[in-house]
Design a protein that fits this description.
- This is DNA polymerase III subunit delta'.
- 56% of the residues lie in helices and 7% in strands.
- With 335 residues, the protein is α/β, with parallel strands linked by helices.
- It has two domains: 166 residues, P-loop containing nucleotide triphosphate hydrolases (Rossmann fold, 3-Layer(aba) Sandwich); 121 residues, Zinc Finger, Delta Prime, domain 3, CATH 1.20.272.
Length: 335
Amino acid sequence: MSNTWQELTEIQPEAMLMLKNSITKDRVAHAYLLEGEKGTGKKAMGIAFAKSLLCQQPSEGYLPCEQCSNCRRIKSGNHPDVHLVEPEGLSIKKEQIKNLQEEFTKKSVEANRKIYTIVAADRMSVQAANSLLKFLEEPQSETVAILMTEQIQRMLPTILSRCQIIKLRPLSPQNVKKKLMEHDIDSQTASIVSFITQNLEEGLRISAEEWFAQAQKIVLKLYEVLQSNPMRALVYLQEEWFLHFKEKEQLDRGLDVLFLIYKDLLYIQLDKRNLVIFQNKLGEFESHALQISQKRLADKMGHILEAKRKLMSNTNPQLLMEQLVLNLQEGSSFV
């Protein structure tokens, strides 16, 4: 994920506005807690904020120039006044916080501030958390702490009360798609994956799976069988579908892709062809969209969502898919 302030503002506008206001209104807090799911940009945001605080020639009073020695050294991780603490093994140990405290008793080497960042702050041991608490209770005026967590409920309330909490939102599907395509993922796969997850790292993993590439083909084939020869759909489930979608999570992914196919038909009916995911099937889908009413289409999409809901209960996945196919067969025969 990019470290530039402008790009982070596109991804997390509210969080970046809070950090901007801290600087421009001269209200920089002693401690910040960036809270958000994996892949929402916490670490990139911490780096961007540190650059802003130490930049030698910021524009508009807060935008890091990215060119001065401070910006470059923060980016490469070797600025003497910016310290990073990450879990050693499964946790952050008391010794790590103790070493940090000793470092911060010294004057800043170059800048007017010293900054420390604690990644996965919820993974501090009890002793480490208590040591940090003492540190936060007696802040030095030139010290700024940036804590990060995916599990805010695991942190001591006394630590939370001493931090300005900034909540990061899950990435929008548009941002996930854009980032995936920047990693050379094709537009169709990026569109599908951005619907499945708002977590960029998970999205990259799914996009790289051979299983997922094959899954898209199998789902499209099921749809095509439903259109051309609906009576064969139940046979197709046995011959191909169940051999590929063996786990509940896999089946859930398959239903997501199936839902997006019917959503494409709806986009065509609404004359929003630019939003169609399966652009290589546009001509075929246009023909199908003409032969089904919006109400019938909405019913089919509803059946898929209902199947996804039942999947999370104890419904037998095979029976669930057979029932779904019977529901989707209704009114879908073009023979």
